[in-house]
Write a structure and sequence with these properties.
Blueprint lengths: L16 E2 L1 H15 L3 H8 L3 H8 L6 H11 L7 E2 L9 H11 L5 H18 L4
């Protein structure tokens, strides 16, 4: 496995990659279970708060960040290695929430409230729900 540059790319298989969506969802689940804000989660994990935003926007963490986040959330990084057939569809809601979290004009409590509101509205209006 080659972990230089884009992480978790298997040698000889250019269609493999890293499942940012699932990784972010697991980090969010751990953060929620601990009752932490994104800022406090970042402090506890030893990363910058913008790290979570970048991952939610689809950017892959570097090896040191991946290691720190996996240690903090007690995750096995191998769970998030994909081949082309197992890549998930995009999740625009995660991208939208990341934009709200990154907005410097919102207070932390405002970000939390807005995130809860958007999640509930999305559940209500999602097709097939």
């Amino acid at each position: 496995m080659n972990c230089i540059g884009e992480i978790a790319l298997q040698e000889g298989n250019p269609t493999s990659g890293f499942d940012n969506v699932q990784f972010f969802e697991q980090l969010d689940l751990h953060r929620t279970e601990k009752g932490l804000t994104w800022k406090k989660a970042a402090d506890a994990a030893g990363v910058s708060a913008s790290t979570f935003t970048r991952i939610a926007q689809g950017r892959k963490p570097d090896v040191d960040t991946l290691s720190a986040l996996c240690r903090w959330a007690r995750l096995d990084a191998n769970r998030f290695v994909l081949d082309e057939a197992s890549r998930p569809a995009r999740k625009p809601m995660n991208e939208a929430l990341a934009l709200f979290r990154a907005d410097p004009n919102l207070s932390e409590s405002g970000k939390v409230a807005l995130e809860a509101l958007v999640r509930e509205a999305y559940k209500h209006f999602r097709e097939g729900a």
